[in-house]
Amino acid sequence: MKLIIAYIQPEKLNDVKQALYAAEIYKLSVSNALGCGQQKGYHETYRGVDMEVNLLKKVRLEIAVNESYVQPTIDAIIEGARTGTIGDGKILVLPLERCVRIRTGEEGNKAIG
Ligand SMILES: Nc1ncnc2c1ncn2[C@@H]1O[C@H](COP(=O)(O)OP(=O)(O)OP(=O)(O)O)[C@@H](O)[C@H]1O
Ligand SMILES: [Mg+2]
Description:
The protein is an alpha+beta fold and about 110 residues long. The protein has helices at about 15-20, 70-80, 110; strands spanning about 1-10, 30-35, 40-45, 50-55, 55-65, 90-95. The N and C termini lie close together (about 10 Å).
């Protein structure tokens, strides 16, 4: 099992969700995040003062999957989120030790899907 964490542009959330649904990936968690990548944010003028805004709004996705769904999930996120410009986002894949469905106590493959 893997936990896939992705940071994407907020306006790409719908496209990513549609691509995930098309790949039969329905279970996900979504939250708002602040972050910066290798551009370290950007500058913007607020009331005439140049300010560094180095934390940009991003959407964070968390998706726990069986091994067979790892690449389809990555592909779907890329399909929905890529524009080819900087800031498109990043995908992290982490080993996932356990998954427990609270209602039944089921674990692992039974609980994740
Ligand atoms: N190494 C990292 N660790 C944690 N979060 C990261 C990391 N890299 C990127 N992120 C998160 O992903 C978001 C999007 O990153 P971004 O797409 O700008 O990456 P990048 O490496 O700068 O690539 P690009 O040059 O295409 O912009 C960031 O705002 C941050 O929230
Ligand atoms: Mg960047």
